[in-house]
Amino acid sequence: MAVRFPHPRTLCLALVLGIAGLAPALAQDDPPTPPGKQQKKLPEAPAKLPKVDRTKNLDFLFGALKAAPDDVSAKHVEARIWAIWIQTPSDTAALLMARAKAATDAQKVDVAIKLLDAVIKLRPDYIEAWNRRATLYYMQNDYGRSLADIQQVLIREPRHFGALAGLGMIMQEVGDDKRALDAYRKALAVNPHLDKIPEQVKALTEKVEGRDI
Predict the structure, then answer these.
(1) 181's torsion region: left (phi>0), alpha (psi -120 to 50) or beta?
(2) Which residues are CB-contacts of 4 (< 8 A; sequence separation ≥ 6)?
(3) Nearest Cα to Cα of residue 112 among 104, 122, 120
(4) How many C-beta neighbours within 10 Å does residue 66 have?
(5) CB count in 10 Å sphere of residue 144
(6) Rounded distance, CA 40 to CA 43, Å?
(7) Residue 53 contacts by C-beta under 8 Å, 6 or more apart in sequence?
(8) Each residue of 60-113: pLDDT tens digit?
(9) What value, to the nearest 5°, has the Cα angle with vertex 118 and ends 30 and 8?
(10) Does the predicted TM-score (pTM) go above 0.90?
(11) How far apart are CA 49 and CA 86, in angstroms?
């Protein structure tokens, strides 16, 4: 999974009301941590991925992810899922994605967003273009656009644990702990081995629902 505009938080929360109702934004370069001013990245795909047959069954892989006996095994399965999500049959889209990554690495975020705009126009069914643009919008504090792109990811793949974790991070940033907790729980239901998210769920559960007596 990025850029943000100075809140209107009202707009962000209005968008959330529409998004939260959806069944619900990876192995991660930077695993999700408690959001704050020092954290400006949504979860993203790993930089290096194994080659994967396009016909691999995501349902099978998600089942294997839930059943993984340890974190090491889970990371291998997670990488296979990411490899499928990232693949695109369009050479043009692949080239634009590579250029968008280069622009992001060079801190040319506006250029990267325009390149991702082109990918989405060309291949609106390509989940990773939406996911990466959501990340760029988040990094610019543009919560409204980031949430809108996360919604597009989750419409196409409700099991996208990266998008769900990202949604939780944004909800925490805007002070909606209840919806943040819901998003994190959905992410863990798909991928129980996400880094840092269990700690966030524990802290938010105590804050939102109170301690067990």
Answers:
(1) alpha
(2) 137, 138, 139, 140, 141, 142, 143, 146
(3) 104
(4) 14
(5) 21
(6) 10
(7) none
(8) 999 999 999 999 999 999 999 999 999 987 999 999 999 999 999 999 999 999
(9) 60
(10) no
(11) 9
